[in-house]
Amino acid sequence: xxxxxxxxxxxxxxxxLYATSAEEFAECAERLRVAPGDRVIDFGCGNGDFLAAALGxxxxxxxxxxxxxxxESAARRFKGDxxxxxxxxxxxxxxxxxxxxxxxxSRKALHHLTDEEKIRFFKKAGGFFxxxxxxxxxxxxxxxxxxxxxxxxxxxxxxxxxxxxAKWEQKKNDVIFCYRQEYPAGIKAWTAALAAGGFSVINRxxxxxxxxxxxxxxx
Length: 219
Prior knowledge:
CATH class: Alpha Beta
CATH topology: Rossmann fold
Structural class: alpha/beta
CATH superfamily: Vaccinia Virus protein VP39
């Protein structure tokens, strides 16, 4: 999937079809409880929508992404803002140096990692966060585990159609590719990955049988 994000046309396609309102990202920042003085990191920052929302309150923000075109868009947006640093890196290779963070965020990005890679990622990333830090994951959080995907596929297809409504036909191929070829995970697998980094799930917001968010706290 990393190769897809190096393709500028793919990034353009994604942004045009899956654009998210500033209000929704503001709600994410609120759910993450971003407060004055917080140091925020966004894994899969894209063009910086969440960073902009978080910086309404936070002291600083780091955005990590693999897409040159997304990072270029974010760089234009935050040009001259010393509070923001943008880093081109894969999630598994990223290192912040001596910095630590109090808030972490990732939306529709970490499902590109296999379940084993999710554990490796959080085991490493856990060291980037201070005790009592919060991490908000919004992604493919399924009611069942990936091993049960085939058994639940017919139900899942109905849920996709209901969730996406009038836009389902436009998004159908992308969504099926994501759930068949990438690695959205069940609640147990996500919880185990977060635990590898010293995070405990505080709250789950279920949007459907296949999507939602997990708020986790650093032990």
